[in-house]
Request: fold
Amino acid sequence: MKAESFPAVILAAGAGRRMKAGMPKPLVKLLGLTLLERTIMGCREAGIEKFYVVVGYEKEKVIKHVEEIRKKHGVDVEVIENKNWKKGNGTSVLAALQHLSTPFFVLMCDHIFDVEIIKNFVKDVAKEKHCVLGIDKKIERVHDIDEATKVKLRGKFIEDIGKELKNFDAVDTGIFFFHPYAKEAMKKAVEEGDASLIQGVKNLAREKKIKGIEVKGEYWIDADTQENLRVAENLLLKSLIKPQDGVISKYINRKISLLISKRLCNTPITPNAISFISFLLSIIAAFLFLMTDYIYLALAGIITQASSVIDGCDGEIARLKFQSSPFGAWLDTVLDRYADVAIAGTISYTYSSIYGNAVAWIIGVLAISGFILSSYSRKEYVIRYGKELPTNKIEYFGRRDFRLFIIFIGAILAYPLEALAVTATLHHIVIIALFFKGRNCR
Amino acid sequence: MKAESFPAVILAAGAGRRMKAGMPKPLVKLLGLTLLERTIMGCREAGIEKFYVVVGYEKEKVIKHVEEIRKKHGVDVEVIENKNWKKGNGTSVLAALQHLSTPFFVLMCDHIFDVEIIKNFVKDVAKEKHCVLGIDKKIERVHDIDEATKVKLRGKFIEDIGKELKNFDAVDTGIFFFHPYAKEAMKKAVEEGDASLIQGVKNLAREKKIKGIEVKGEYWIDADTQENLRVAENLLLKSLIKPQDGVISKYINRKISLLISKRLCNTPITPNAISFISFLLSIIAAFLFLMTDYIYLALAGIITQASSVIDGCDGEIARLKFQSSPFGAWLDTVLDRYADVAIAGTISYTYSSIYGNAVAWIIGVLAISGFILSSYSRKEYVIRYGKELPTNKIEYFGRRDFRLFIIFIGAILAYPLEALAVTATLHHIVIIALFFKGRNCR
Reply:
């Protein structure tokens, strides 16, 4: 059986008093999704298909929200009621153990994970016969270490666990993998009066039945207070900055687009709609480039740069709200190329009356072909070699953020055709450089 | 152990009297490669890395050729001498069985296979504990059925084999997989006086030790006569016609390019050099389009179409001579795009003086962007979806063979800009159609 085919149990029964949100914690919103929604969607992106949400505190509201999630995302999600939720979160896991007969994952609804962590955890436990707790040895990245649950290891197994451990090797991240046999240990904890999940884990640890496996990914956080929620928000936003971002994108565009996305993610606007808005802005800019008055020229430049910034938002919103789709990515990429063609086409046409037909024509053709072919060459490489061409600093000059920025600056300085000539030339240099580099790849 | 890691033994010890070539059969040339070279390279494309060539008749010449193949292609190939070759080809397999301690494949040097057959055979026998003979049940595609070796099956096992079988289920294709235990059966055949491979197989069949597995692929042929060699040549050439070829390519370009490739494959010219020649022809055509005299215009059109035809030869030669490389395919594709840009650019520039700047400009921009983006959109789809977009008749209008043909016809009729406008428009229609189609794909 594949690990992804095991269900995930989301603990959402607690009162969440530390959060002070005025609503059940699973319903608290973070960048466009509720905490419960984000946890479920993250697991789904990791391949998990079946979900159980354990409810207790204000269960009517939570159950209603689970219904909403099921309808909105088409997720296979059921509710498990835990009448003993007040005693501790161990009762929620026990309720799941009594309900299910297969192994399952357990996640806290208020822990925000880099989806890579969930993906890797699912892979790592695939053939694990023991129960598993996802642990983090990078203690320095744990916010609020006093409140964190510490873990002491012996080899691969957990020896002890608790908030008060003085001597520890790692921290509990709140992602678990339980086998049905964990029921005894959990029942014992409840019966003996400490109905916390930690006490259940202690019981398992005593019998050497639970391993600690280190989580692999960029970030995770227990977002159980308003302050930690803000930290989580920043972590999520920061995670949208791609390592392959170009220079302009990294230092200018992302800073603005993240602010926009932070607001837009709370509206129903879709990533594809944002792609269209960015495209429309480019087309407006292209039309403005048909006029030679400085005021229109400058405006065209500014709108070009605005379109470039907003072009980042569709991907950001898509990743924040798990709305990525191959179709969306495909559409966005091709629309971007059309937008580039429109801008380069109108600039070279307009200035042919000033600089002469031949010069403007050559620059226009070089720009249009260079803008598309620098991207085309990279994609063709991916298809032929089955992998990405390793990135190189020189390629930054052939990226969209850079080309539109040069056009923006050129327009502001009233030298749009010169700017186009510069960026067009750079693109063809990049393409030639790609070939010299690709030639040596296997 | 992976099946590809087993070596292939090529039988090249016979006198090949039926061929009447005036040289040892392994050295006979077929479309740029010798029969021995083609067999080894086909196996290498199927993933086999280690080769043994069994030599006998005129062994000095064959050994010298094996040396040449080793140097030219960097193949790991050794020679096994068979002093008893005159007795029959069973002695060659016996020599291999005495030399090797692992299972191995056996191929006849004069059997021409669709490489897919070898690939599938290697896959199919990967975990086979029995010896295997590749058989063909499609009797109708066997040339020279009288000379073919027939096979009678019982379940998956071979019951009997021989040229004279009246009642048979399939035909021996000449690709085998032998385990070391086949030595006894082969030795027995030699000792009992019929030292043919078939007699050895008969002995194995008697003990239910050899299976018949159907080969999967387009074609194979025993090229043991001059006549069959011609049939093999036609099969190989026909196999170069791709199912996804456009209309112009299929009915016009391939017919000419195959004739050219048939000649070029006997020269040392490389596929990359042909890509460059095709590119240069396009650039010459683009320059000729700068002149408006009809004679230059018509010449430009003809050279455009010639470039389109020759653009097929690089891939044909590469596949015929096993010279395909990701770099070559990458370079060819991007050069094709530059060639298209050059032609569309000069046509629209030249006719701007006749039709006015705005009209020519729009057509030029539409053509350049459409020519690149129709290909770009398809590639982007492959990357996003991880598979090809299913082909559709309408896409033929967005293919290179079609666009260059329209330009050729337009030039001949002295309406190049109109032709450019028509094909440019068609390209953008194709791109929009691609999106409507891709939208429904998963």
